[in-house]
Design a protein that fits this description.
Elements (H helix, E strand, L loop, with lengths): L2 E5 L1 H4 L2 H13 L4 E5 L2 H10 L6 E2 L2 E2 L3 H25 L4 E4 L10 E2 L3 E2 L5 E2 L5 E2 L7 H9 L3 E4 L2 E3 L5 E3 L2 H12 L2 E6 L17 E2 L1 H9 L7 H14 L3 E6 L9 E3 L1
Helix pairs in contact: 3-4, 6-8
């Protein structure tokens, strides 16, 4: 089974964690794909350039200047840093944005009209789906022993770069390839008690998820992550696991089926 792994922002922001993660990822057996973002670093670069980051519901509003920054950070520094560490760990990685080989296309997100009549224009933000993924190109790389490392910069096929969400990219790639998806977070999995990192729920299905939400155990930011996990399963992903990057080589974390 192909494995798609999404690397979280905390890992990219910590040299020691990133180096350990890349060693573990390189040690994963079988064909694999890595997807990463880099939002925290992009935010710092924006501020250093005098650009105040603007977000709506956690999604970065992307004007012309912001698109330049996130492209330099995601497709440049973050991507090549990860690829270099994977190569050092013996993994023959190749770094890609969506426009490379047109591996992922995206559609520009339309403005959102709020209930009070105001409009949120996300700018150069793109949305992707399993149909956006050029699976034959990824499969060609995998068949030739290469490990794709995908950043969250994609394109519309007509010359426009678009800033996309790395979690959505990972889910779409996993669904398109029929792969297993591992999402690495800052916590060890979905927790029974959010203040107790040892209270990892080992398995969640749709019925369990409904019960956890009704009881308020799963709430806030974990809801969209689990919604996306079940959406990936519905669209073709083999399984989804949510865990901390340090247990990538184990069966730790929460398995979602």
């Amino acid at each position: 089974m192909i494995r798609v792994v999404k690397c979280g922002g905390q890992v990219l922001d910590d040299d020691a964690l990133l180096e350990a993660f890349c060693r573990d990822f390189a040690a994963l057996e079988g064909p694999k794909v890595l997807v990463h973002g880099g939002g925290a670093l992009a935010g710092r670069f924006q501020k250093a350039l005098g650009i105040e980051p603007v977000k709506y519901e956690g999604r970065r509003v992307t004007d012309d200047a912001t698109l330049q920054v996130v492209t330099m950070v995601y497709a440049g520094w973050c991507n090549k840093r990860v690829v270099s560490l994977l190569q050092a760990a013996g993994c023959d990685a190749i770094g890609l944005s969506g426009c490379d080989g047109s591996v992922i296309t995206a559609s520009k997100r339309p403005p959102l009209t709020l209930s009070d009549g105001r409009t949120v224009d996300f700018g150069w933000v793109g949305d992707v789906s399993p149909a956006s993924v050029r699976t034959e190109f990824l499969q060609l790389l995998l068949d030739n022993g290469l490990t794709p490392v995908l950043c969250a910069i994609n394109h519309d096929g007509a010359g426009q770069l678009l800033n996309t969400n790395a979690d959505t990219v990972a889910s779409s790639v996993a669904a398109a390839l029929g792969a297993g998806l591992t999402t690495c977070l800052e916590q060890p999995g979905v927790l029974e008690d959010r203040n107790d990192p040892s209270s990892v729920i080992p398995f969640i299905d749709k019925d369990t998820y409904a019960s956890l939400k009704a009881r308020g155990i799963v709430a806030d930011g974990m809801i969209p992550k689990l919604d996306q996990a079940f959406d990936a399963l519905a669209k073709g992903a083999a399984e989804v696991r949510i865990c901390h990057s340090s247990v990538l080589l184990t069966d730790g974390g929460t398995l979602i089926r």
